[in-house]
Design a protein that fits this description.
mainly alpha; 2 domains; single chain
Length: 175
C-alpha cells in the first residue's frame, strides 16, 4: 500500500521532499514493472529452458541405458564363462570318478575269474581259426584212423581245442 508523505510544518512544504516522494514512487513503479517483465520473460523462456532440459535428459537417459546394457552383457558373458568352466571341471571330475569305478569293477571281476572282453575276443578268434582249419582238413579228405568212426574224431579234437584255447588265451588286465 502506498502511503502519502506528510507535508512538513505547514502548507509551504519543501520542494525537495516532494521531489523525493515522486522519485521513490517512480522507482517503486519501475521495480514493480521490472518484476512483471522478469516474470513474463521467465514464463517465455521457461518453456524453452524446460524443453532444452528434457532434450538433455533424453540424451543422458540413452547414454545411461547403453552403458547399463553394456555392463549387463559383460556380466552375462562372465557368468556364462564361469558356468562353462564349472561344467568342464565337473565333467572332468565325473570322468575321473567313472574311470576309478570301472577299474575297481574290472579288478573285482578278474579276482572272480570272469574273462574280459579281450579274453573272449581272443577265444572267438581262436575258435574261428580252428573252424577254418577243420574245414580245410575236411576238404583235403582227411580219413579217420582205422577202427574209429568219423564222429569220434571231431569229439577228440574238440577236447584238444578246448585245452589249447585255455592255454593260448592271453590273460590281460581288464579294460
Amino acid at each position: 500500500m502506498v502511503t502519502k508523505l506528510k507535508k512538513g510544518r505547514g502548507e509551504g512544504a519543501d520542494p525537495s521532499s516532494a521531489q523525493l516522494a515522486d522519485t521513490v514512487k517512480e522507482s517503486a513503479q519501475q521495480i514493480w514493472l521490472a518484476g512483471l517483465g522478469a516474470f513474463s520473460k521467465a514464463q517465455e523462456e521457461g518453456g524453452r529452458v524446460f524443453e532444452a532440459l528434457v532434450k538433455e535428459g533424453v540424451g543422458l537417459q540413452r547414454k545411461t541405458q547403453s552403458v547399463a546394457e553394456g555392463k549387463l552383457s559383460e556380466a552375462s558373458s562372465r557368468m556364462s564363462s564361469m558356468a562353462s568352466d564349472l561344467s568342464s571341471k565337473a565333467a572332468g571330475q565325473w570322468d575321473k570318478l567313472e574311470s576309478i569305478f570301472e577299474e575297481r569293477v574290472s579288478r573285482a571281476l578278474k579276482k572272480l575269474g570272469v574273462p574280459t572282453s579281450r579274453d573272449i575276443d581272443a577265444l572267438v578268434a581262436r575258435v574261428e581259426e580252428l573252424n577254418r582249419t577243420v574245414a580245410a582238413l575236411r576238404r583235403a579228405g582227411g580219413r579217420s584212423a582205422p577202427g574209429k568212426t568219423g564222429t569220434d574224431r571231431p569229439a577228440a579234437k574238440a577236447g584238444k581245442v578246448a585245452k589249447t584255447a585255455r592255454k593260448r588265451a592271453p590273460r590281460k588286465a581288464a579294460e
